[in-house]
Amino acid sequence: MKTVLFLCLGLPAAMLAQTATLRGVVTDSSGGAVANARVSLAGQGRLARTQSTDSQGAYVFDRLPLGDYVVQASAPQLVLPQPAAISISAGLNVLNLQLNVAPVVERMNVETDSTTVGTDPSTNASALVLRGEDLDALSDDPEDLMADLQALAGPSAGPSGGSIFIDGFSGGELPPKESIREIRINQNPFSPEFDKLGLGRIEILTKPGTDHWRGNLNYNFATDAWNSRNPYSAIKAPLLLNEYENNVSGPLGKRASLTLDLNQNNVDNGSIVNAVTLNPQTLTASPFFDIFKTIQRRTRVYPRIDYSVNEHNTLSFRYDFIKGDIQGAGIGGFDLITRGSHYRYNINTAQATETLVLGGGAINETRFQYYRNQFEAIPNSLASAVQVLGAFNDGGSRSGNATDTLSSYEFQNYTTVLRGAHTWRFGIRVRVQQDDNVSPTNFNGAFTYGGGLGPVLNSSNQPVLDASGQPVLAQIDSIERYRRTLLFQQLNYSPAQIRALGGGATQFSIAGGQPGVSATQTDASPFFGDEWRARPNLTVNVGIRYEAQTNIGDLRDWAPRVGIAWAPGGSGKKQPKTVIRAGFGTFYDRFALANTVTAKRYNGVLQQQYVVDNPDFSSVPPLSSLAGMQSLQVVQKIDSNLRAPVIFQSAFTIERQLLPSTTLAVTYTNSRGAHTLRSLDINAPLAGGFYPLGNANPLFLMTSSGVYRQNQISANVNAKVNRSVSLTGSYTFNRARSNTDGLGTFPADPYNYSGEYGPASTDVHHRVSAGGTINLRWNIRLSPLVNLQSGAPFDITTGSDLYGTTLFNGRPGISANPAKPGLIQTPYGLLDPNPTPGEPLLGRNFGRGPGQMSVNLRAGKTIPFGPEQRSSGKGPASRRYNLSISMSIRNLLNHTNPGPITGNISSPLFGRANQMAGNVNGEGFSENANNRRAEMQIKLTF
Q: Which residues are CB-neighbours of 716 under 8 A, at least 6 positions away?
């Protein structure tokens, strides 16, 4: 296979013989590869170079003059015992380096790859490498740590957001912070190894074991007494946080090492209900506040074993077990306490990695991951749901007694070959997912109340008549429709009378049938890439990737990638001051297995979804009786011509060395999306009441007919001011347009798409992020992180089903007649919730929410104590123990950041939020009870 690769690249053998190249692999004392180690090369009277090792610990210096050199290497907590001397001869020279644990643990000096510029694609000036103190500056809490990383990564180019890789694996759970060796952000954007663009990509590498036993005992504590009141709650919500995050690492004999994390997270979080409900006695609408203490528990065991088979072969095994229990999940916002559920889950992740150093300058890495997530939801109530749109949700949880077991297998085999000026990397990733899902969603039924036209009532709750004796009509909101329903039911009015007076549910829906469904999906992605150092100041990266998956018939997903980095005036003897980069790539998104599960479940046979408009009943009828009513059965289906969503992305960057340790990078990114996902009702009623399929049942088709356009300009500054101050900052201007925000997007008018192309959900125009680490006297460290952004768009809807699709996504019209009954005055003008045919409508995502501001600060002090320790009698002594005490404050300025904006104009809360920004994580955990939150951390290192 190597011969085929050489012939394909047309690399003359003579070129190899005439080039002096030094390559090698940097390992630790256990034999594990050390990624991102700094390797320096210097020769008397000759050039000096510095670079970082790649993810396999490999480094390479090419085009070297012949002669004697000295090589030095280091990494956080690791050093080379003494510099290595080597005599460089013509051709390929090999020097492997082994690092030992550094003797000084009291303070770690951090060097990011972004303090100098160069043509290496993995060290572009907009990238970040966080380790040592810069990593310590981030939050210990998993949810806050994820938020910090996403803020530092900035907005991802493209509609699908950034991606996260943990030890090379996609997805998975964020590892405990004490197990993280380093975090890389936005590196090598156009590498064919990855399925998504590097802008916004977060790579997390965990620690191998150490050669001596070391450990950390961490305790995090927080209470609402330290915090400020949630602005969307009438009283302060409770919060009690007790988290224990402990880590130990050491050798298991001469060839193996162990790292073990034992974590326990106990969080009692106040879930805040902020709604508009009716007084049971007077039936008057008024704001309603309630607080429920959601009890959250999570236990985690996280061992990793590294084993050095021999000097060429290293094995790594990692296992992650998470057990979670959340009592009172799903409560908050519009959802009353009865809507809550008890969540229980077990997550098991097993990983194995083999790294093999081959002959001839090649490294092969084989990885395997098994992931299993078992989830169960037990609702507090199985009563039918009552949804008063934009006001409150009552009754039971619609999820029912649900269980889900998701299993996935991921296999990777990657090879890196160093040949002169070329670094070839190729391999394949194969993933298999299986989902066994039992979901009786909406088996309990749901009554939905929306706004609309209704008669004006006098003080006796009778219609007001006009001069012709007809009722005067006006727009009523959802809570008023619900009030009239309850009032006239108490007066024993018939359903027809209640409907005539503006009451009655707008819609009733229920599902039935077989709740269980299983589905399997496989995808495979081979790739090949070549990093060619054409000249000392010019690097060219070319590659190609192929994506294929089952469950859709699209087999045309080729993804070419190319990147060029040129340093004008740079040479092998001179560090460049300016680097110009350009790149283009094709990137595909996979069609998720969850979509296949949905289509199988709601195919009209396995399960049935019934919808009744304007029902004349107030209790759930037998499912068998709905066939005789004027009910609709909703079916969901995958388009047989569905294509994988694709993004064509190009970027142009100018990097400049401003000061010896300060860089500036300005990047323009253009993204053009095709075949993006959205849904269509292909059996919506036509004019005259006709249906394309001959029946009235909606057919929701999952299609890839959407488009996406984005232009983005970002500026990144990274500065290592001195040994005590490290700063980073970025600004991004972004403009994104699309006609869909995913499969949940339906055109408001199923036969008129003219208003669908507009601001995308990612159309946040301005973002600013700034952070860093500042070391003061007496071992005091400050770590600020500031995030600012302008408002995000939101869709404005009428809160009613205008087109007979069973969906409440119709958008209001802009009436030319201000005297038309039912118009609503809004900050966006006088809007018509009942637009007539031909009346212009508001475009999609026409609303714009307020901006967001968050200032976070972490302050800490380290106290060394215990006996002194020295290494070989050289260098400053360190203490055996270190006690760190710190305080983390989220939202230091107590600024109110509104959550999702209510876009339903028939809601009493239209245009406002009823909760703070910030959602639960993927496991259902939340610490969002208070506006300003302080946590204290105590950490003992030994």
A: 114, 125, 126, 664, 665, 666, 667, 728, 729, 730
704 and 552 in contact (C-beta within 8 Å)?
no
Cα 419 to Cα 40, 52, 358, 380, 915: the distances in Å are: 20, 18, 13, 64, 57
Of 827, 762, 929, which Cα lies nearest the Cα of 272? 929
Count the residues in the chain: 942
Coil vs helix vs strand at 620: coil
Between the alpha carbon of residue 487 and those of residues 280, 389, 464, 479, 494, the distances in Å are: 10, 19, 17, 12, 12
What letters, b where the CB count within 10 A reaches 16 and e where it falls short, cover 639-649? beebbbbbbeb
Task: Report CA-CA distances (Å) from 624 to 187, 369, 396, 498, 627.
Answer: 58, 46, 22, 26, 6
Residue 902: DSSP 8-state: P
Backbone angles phi, psi at 513, to 5 degrees: 115, -150
Comparing CA positions, the residue from 479, 452, 474 lying closest to residue 463 is: 474
Query: By the 8 A CB rule, do 479 and 485 touch?
Result: no
**Distance between CA atoms of residues 746 and 809, nearest Å:** 8
In the DSSP assignment, the letter for residue 175 is: P
> pLDDT means per 10 residues in the chain (942 residues)?
38 37 76 75 60 74 72 75 72 77 36 56 70 77 80 71 81 82 82 83 83 89 94 93 93 89 95 94 93 95 91 89 95 94 96 85 90 95 95 93 96 90 93 96 95 91 90 92 95 94 95 94 96 90 96 92 89 77 94 94 91 91 78 92 94 89 91 95 91 93 96 91 87 96 94 93 94 89 94 94 93 90 90 90 95 94 81 53 92 94 93 87 80 94 89
Identify the bridge partners of residue 507 per DSSP, sorted by sequence position. 448, 613
CA dist., res. 747 & res. 738, Å (int): 12
Helix (H, G, I), strand (E, B) or coil at 879: strand
* Integer Cα distance of 749 and 797 in angstroms: 12
Rounded distance, CA 834 to CA 837, Å? Answer: 10
Using CA atoms, how far apart are residues 458 and 824, in angstroms rounded to an integer? Answer: 20
Question: For residue 443, what are its two tokens?
Answer: 């088996």
Residue spans of the domains in the chain: they are: 2-104, 451-460+482-505
Is pTM beyond 0.90? Reply is no
The domain made up of 2-104 has a fold known as Immunoglobulin-like (2.60.40)
Which helix (DSSP H) or strand (DSSP E) does residue 584 occupy?
strand 578-588
Residues facing 854 on adjacent strands: 787
How many helices (H) does the chain have, and how many strands (E)? Answer: 7, 50
